[in-house]
Amino acid sequence: MKFAVSYSTPYYGVDPDKIVAYAQHAEDCGFESLYLPEHIALYPGAMAGRFELPPSLPYFDPLDCLSFVAAATRRILLGTGVLLLPYHHPVVLAKRLATIDVLSKGRMRLLTVGLGTLPGEARAVGVDFSTRGRRADEAIDVMRLLWAGGEDGVSFAGEFFTFDDLCQFPKPHGVTHLPIHIGGSSRAAARRAGRRGDGYFPGGALDPNERATQMDLARSTAVEAGRSPETLEYTRWGSIDMTVDQVEDLAAQGVTRIVIGATAAEPDQQREELSAFAQRFALLEHLTS
């Protein structure tokens, strides 16, 4: 089992020194990776499920923030949970991701993408909300094509993106393409993970049966697409106070990574919570073994 931490700027704040201290402490504790969420823009009345999102919530751009964190850390992997893929142009996004991966010496490896749930956010960036699933599928294909392409260039002709003989350098650090995990809490997201993803990171308040159904669907879709379901990573949210038994139960379900976050807003208490979790699961021992 791998253990990651999340950093929520809407909850913890946007002080750059606190972000760096949090990431450095997580790294020192033995956590594998750091995740940041994304919202590009909010508006009065924006609803996430049953909950209204205050429009003043301070969401950092996750990739800019992860690049900042990478400069202040040595080992911790960089992740998004989730990046709203339909709202980014994949040619530009592929360049940004490769740049961060090169500058971090191969740590931009836990990109998790989702579709977004706010129609007003889609309208603000000129995206038809009803097409965002197809747009995301195409964007994944575009990025992988660009990362793998050589000096002769690559071409693409899709519903949303078209180009001829395009070259994009530098390439990601030492790999053909960066892993792309699929986030979401729907069966469509599970199928997307099976068809195109390197992992599945379901969110939402799903009951155990639906979670099992979705992961089975991701694996069966991978088989139908001629891909190996065994290589599909399975990431889930956890809690800072979870027990060994709870982790073992998730492992029995096939979970390969758990993402937790500190509940405290103050840095000293955050460090205490992360340290206690790391000690409970002997993260440093596993890191060096």
Automatic annotation (TrEMBL):
Pfam families: Bac_luciferase (PF00296). Residues 10-274 form the Luciferase-like domain. The keyword Lyase does not apply. GO terms for molecular function: alkanesulfonate monooxygenase activity. It comes from the Bacteria. InterPro entries: Lucif-like_OxRdtase_Rv2161c, Luciferase-like_dom, Luciferase-like_sf, SsuD_RutA_monooxygenase. One of its GO terms (biological process) is alkanesulfonate catabolic process. Keywords: Flavoprotein, FMN, Monooxygenase, Oxidoreductase. PANTHER family: ALKANESULFONATE MONOOXYGENASE, ALKANESULFONATE MONOOXYGENASE-RELATED. This is LLM class F420-dependent oxidoreductase.
